[in-house]
Design a protein that fits this description.
Length: about 425
């Protein structure tokens, strides 16, 4: 099959600039445009992959404490039929685990130090079905036995109160007990059975855990306040929650993990969009450098254009020659950027430590950030739009110079030849 002469000639012009000394400056600008597109595309892929990696790391650590879906009664009351709700939820094909829990707020006191905490009553035997916390802190959670009134604290909370394993703390319930002397807050002396570390500062600094039956007694509840569920696919949580809402017989509320941290996830998405827009402008600047490259090429090839026109080439064919030339630069730059970006994004766990060792610095100090390594997760949903946008910008940049080439008058171009 014979290649159209527009493509063949456009490719020849793309290569000729590097071979001919008098076109060296044009070739330099063309190479700079190609390099700019490649670096812009690579920067977009690397930055978005790192942001995806951070989001995944934080999400996974968050889900080590937070379940995929929570079913709970209104106003923090006890559920009427916990076993029935768990049985109905387990019938859904996406649900792989269910466990009862008690959620409440209280004050935790140690001497003169006092802090508001989120109290979570759990069933240690079933906690591993709904969160990953039991996998890393299972031995500690097994100390929570009904009637022992033992408590497990987050490591950051224990550090702020100066508490260690074996110490005694006082849990103060918000609703007081009515006595002849007035309302007296309910207090319970509890022994610290251990500390848990979820890797997420917000929960490690504000959460305590105890057996759900002990929590029921302290807060005077007739049963657990809710049920926690784990799904096969965490991304299906909103859909599954909506389906379960129509299946449960008792009037209950459902909340999935995206709703519990909606503000944080929305902020991450805004940051990703802004970074995408900012770095796309870099690709746009590099792509529109093709305009100057093609304008000088057209000026240099005026006599060639005139000869082609006299041989019968149409204005559309002339325009196609220079569109091909500019598009080739855009395609090569985009492909190079994709290769470089994916190479760095897929090996960032090796590249960043090497740079840190060479510079003697740490980009993510362990005592400041909850993540001590640079994560990366390249996604096709980010990479494909980046490549498409880079190609479109490169193509659009070729239109005006190519149109001016098609408007060259052969007689004027050959007058002084």
């Amino acid at each position: 099959m014979q290649i159209p002469f527009e493509i063949a000639l456009g490719w020849r012009y793309t290569r000729a600039g590097r071979a001919m000394r008098r076109n060296g400056f044009i070739s330099f600008i063309s190479g700079a445009s190609m390099l700019g597109i490649a670096l812009g595309v690579a920067a977009l892929i690397i930055v978005l992959s790192v942001m995806n990696g951070f989001q995944k790391e934080v999400r996974d650590r968050m889900l080590s404490v937070v379940s995929h879906i929570e079913i709970f009664a209104p106003n923090g009351q006890a559920m009427q039929d916990v076993a029935g709700a768990m049985a109905q939820a387990r019938q859904h094909p996406e649900v792989v685990g269910a466990a009862p829990f008690v959620a409440a707020q209280a004050l935790l006191a140690r001497g003169d130090d006092m802090k508001g905490v989120l109290v979570r009553g759990i069933d240690p035997a079933h906690e591993g079905e709904v969160t990953d916390l039991a996998a890393t802190n299972g031995a500690v959670l097994q100390h929570l036995q009904p009637g022992s009134f033992a408590i497990v604290l987050g490591v950051e909370l224990a550090r702020s109160l100066g508490v260690a394993e074996g110490d005694t703390v006082t849990l103060i319930a918000p609703s007081g007990q009515v006595t002849p002397a007035g309302v007296v807050p309910r207090m319970k002396q509890m022994q610290v059975a251990g500390l848990f570390d979820s890797g997420h500062y917000e929960y490690d600094a504000n959460m305590v855990m105890l057996h759900y039956q002990d929590a029921q007694k302290i807060f005077r509840l007739e049963g657990p306040t809710g049920v926690r569920l784990k799904l096969r696919d965490l991304h299906q949580a909103p859909r599954v929650a909506q389906e379960l809402a129509g299946q449960l017989q008792e009037f209950l509320y459902l909340r999935d993990w995206t709703q519990q941290n909606k503000t944080w996830f929305a902020a991450v998405q805004v940051e990703k969009r802004m970074m995408f827009i900012i770095l796309t402008l870099i690709v746009a600047v590099a792509a529109f450098n093709l305009v100057s490259t093609l304008v000088m090429t057209v000026q240099d090839k005026r006599s060639d254009i005139a000869i082609l026109r006299t041989l019968g080439a149409s204005p559309a064919s002339i325009m196609g020659v220079f569109v091909v030339q500019g598009a080739m630069v855009g395609v090569l730059g985009t492909l190079a950027g994709l290769a470089l970006g994916l190479l760095v994004a897929c090996n960032i766990d090796v590249i960043v430590p090497a740079i840190e060792q060479a510079l003697g610095a740490s980009f993510l100090p362990k005592d400041i950030y909850i993540i001590s390594r640079m994560p990366s997760e390249p996604l096709a949903s980010d990479i494909v739009p980046i490549a498409v946008i880079a190609l479109i910008l490169a193509f659009v940049a070729t239109l005006y110079p190519s149109w001016r080439a098609s408007r060259v008058n052969p007689a004027e171009a050959l007058r002084y030849e």
